[in-house]
Amino acid sequence: QLKPVYLAVGALDECAQGRPELIHLISTSLTLSQKVKWLLSSRPEVDLLAELKGPGTNFTDASNSLVELDTQRLTEPVNAYIDHKLIALRCRKGYNDSVLAEVSREVRQRAENTFLWVALAFKVLDTVHGRYAVKRITEMPPSLSELYDHMMARIEAGQMIEPQDCKTVLVVTSLAFRPLSISELSVLADLPSDVAETAIEMCGSFLTLTKGTVNLIHQSAKDYLEKNYKSRLQPDGPAQGHAEISRRSIDAMSSMPRQNMYNLDLGFKPENMAPPDPDPLAPIRYSCVYWPDHLCSLNTCQRELTDDGKVFEFLKKYFLRWLESLSLLGNLSGGLLSIRKLLHVAQVC
After folding, report:
1. Across the strands, what pairs with 181?
2. pTM score, two decimals?
3. What is the DSSP-derived secondary structure letter of residue 177?
4. How far apart are CA 223 and CA 215, in angstroms?
5. What residues contact residue 84 under an 8 Å CB cut-off, 6+ apart?
6. Which end of the chain, N or C, is surrounded by fewer C-beta atoms within 10 Å?
7. Contacts of 15 (CB under 8 A, 6+ apart)
8. In degrees rounded to 5, what are phi and psi of residue 121?
9. Given this structure, which CATH class describes domain 154-232?
10. Do residues 295 and 258 make contact, with C-beta atoms less than 8 angstroms apart?
11. Of 78, 87, 19, nearest to 48 (Cα)?
12. For residue 207, what are the β-bridge partners?
């Protein structure tokens, strides 16, 4: 006998291609078996219920099978989450019953049933004495966009490290093609590891650090940074960030250790071999694979691809060592694809 199956699909609004087919699959599975359950999330502009019951689907009676959690119906679970976070604050200094009651009231009034707003608000309170908690909450705007504006203003007014270092970290994480380790982020941002870690903490409303991996906290944070990139991060736009990431990657790879970094016999890497500890390639793993992608993201790259440019100089001196690094990373095929990309871009430029 088959057991229940639960399938989760997030951000359906970002599914630009194939969404009708996916909707058809979902509706068909719901009609064929009651043991198949779907958890779907989407922004309001996609009317999932209408699409599930629309023409071309096999789902006509959705009343008994579909449950919609819209903003109004989220009141109870959001309040439960707030209660959970308030309990965690009880052991913090200054959070007596009176303060917790005020915090509870202010958070519930301003949250607008948004889980992320509540999470960000309590993340701020993690570093605030109870005496100042209510003041900090009342300073936070209710909408996410305005809240990100508020958090960015706090970053720009920071004094622990240079605000520009924080912005550099945000540039790198928002433009990176995958989550980064701290050592990779340090290379791409050209910052010492301790400064990079401090910047991550100061950008806690935008970034999350999980098991040594840095990522944007939510799609809304990425959307905000993309929309406000020129005004908040770099006036010349994302092309400037891509150029800097590519340049720093090339600089880091040009300083790679000696040949045969893993001390392999005859240069062959055994299957399933664990990298040495410390791994000399750890800080430049991202750089080795993705520096051409950042270069290809520029609007124009004529200067970078000239015969006396940085790219040609790097390939002339370190091409074989780059291929060795890609081989050790198990991504030699990616290097070949990168070369094709560079050749194509060079021809276009």
Report:
1. 213
2. 0.76
3. S
4. 14
5. none
6. N
7. 22
8. -65, -45
9. mainly alpha
10. no
11. 19
12. 216
The encoded tokens of residue 216 equal 């944007």
What are the structure tokens assigned to 72, written together? Answer: 């109004």
What type of residue is 12? L
Crossing angle between the packed helical segments 163-175 and 219-227, to the nearest 10 degrees: 110
Report the C-alpha gap between 304 and 320 in whole angstroms.
Answer: 20
- Residue listed under structure tokens 């694809």: 337
Query: 262 is written with which tokens?
Result: 């893993």
**Structure tokens that stand for 255 in this block:** 């300083």
And the tokens for 115? 């889980």
Look at the block and give the residue holding tokens 């390639």. Answer: 281
The pairs formed by 325-334 with CB atoms below 8 angstroms and a separation of 24 or more are 325/253, 325/256, 325/261, 325/281, 325/284, 325/288, 326/288, 326/289, 327/269, 328/261, 328/262, 328/269, 328/275, 328/281, 329/281, 329/285, 329/288, 329/289, 331/288, 331/289, 334/289
Question: Which tokens hold the place of 266?
Answer: 């005859």
- Rounded to whole angstroms, the Cα distance separating 216 from 228 reads 15
Q: Is the peptide bond before 192 cis (omega within 30 degrees of 0)?
A: no
303-347 pLDDT, tens digit each:
666 767 788 889 888 988 898 889 888 888 888 888 888 887 777
Residue-range domain boundaries for the chain: 5-68, 73-142, 154-232, 238-348
